[in-house]
TrEMBL record:
Organism, as annotated: Pelotomaculum propionicicum
Record carries keyword Glycosyltransferase: no
Domain called DUF4412: residue spans: 63-175
Keywords assigned: Signal
Signal sequence bounds: 1-22
Protein name: DUF4412 domain-containing protein
Length: 237
């Protein structure tokens, strides 16, 4: 029997990690106003965050620390293509995401097997750091300080959810407009820290996102379509 459930848990966690990175990339349009404390030559936080939209390729290592433990891995991204590597319970897992076709593949190199899911067309491709930046409004970010983190000059910014239950503190690279550290304080779900190290911005070769030759691939798409949907519970919102 193949260990299918852990593979999908790994895929979900990796996608979450990338979306966490994306959530601090910033908004694609630079802010048109500057605060009174900024000099005429100083970039606004909106200008800095907007740079993330221009990044097409990059690789980085990450560490996710939460109440459930610590997870580490490495990610390569080029446009809407992504490859992720991580180790869970002593087992190395590799995930491939093709945002152009909404295809997700989890690969177990020890067994030389893989599982694939292709979601139906929805009009929206897989989120990437540059796509997700549209959800951030630079005008609502509080700039705390300018500092150096992992060798990069960063703006440390803070945002708070409308209900005040979630506070995010983010170290944003001034050069690239993408985060290098995210501290999330959540009064309901617990706190997490995402760290991004060895960031390299530049084109990633296409072969990086291809499975090795000879891998046995199981297509789970039809099976996932046939899974029953959770029923609506009366009285629940």
């Amino acid at each position: 029997m193949k260990k299918r459930l852990p593979l999908f848990l790994v895929l979900f966690t990796l996608v979450f990690a990338v979306l966490a990175l994306a959530g601090c990339g910033g908004k694609s349009q630079p802010a048109s106003q500057s605060t009174g404390t900024q000099s005429a030559k100083e970039e606004s936080i909106g200008d800095i965050i907007a740079k993330g939209k221009k990044v097409e390729g990059m690789s980085y290592e990450y560490t996710l620390t939460s109440k459930d433990g610590t997870m580490t891995g490495k990610v390569w991204m080029q446009g809407k293509m992504m490859k992720s590597e991580t180790v869970m319970a002593g087992q190395k897992m590799i995930s491939y995401i093709d945002g152009n076709t909404n295809t997700f593949i989890t690969y177990n190199p020890d067994e030389n097997t893989a599982m694939k899911i292709t979601s139906p067309p929805t009009g929206q491709s897989t989120e990437t750091p540059t796509d997700f930046t549209d959800e951030i409004d630079p005008a609502k970010l509080k700039v705390l300080e300018t500092t150096t983190y992992e060798g990069y000059k960063c703006k440390v910014v803070e945002s708070t959810s409308q209900d005040g239950k979630v506070v995010e503190k983010v170290w944003v690279s001034v050069d690239y407009g993408i985060p290098l550290r995210i501290e999330t304080t959540d009064s309901v779900n617990g706190n997490t820290v995402m760290e991004y190290k060895n960031l390299k911005v530049g084109s990633i070769p296409a072969e990086t996102f291809k499975l090795p030759a000879g891998v046995e691939v199981t297509d789970m798409s039809e099976m996932m379509k046939n899974l029953p949907q959770a029923p609506n519970v009366p009285g629940k919102q």
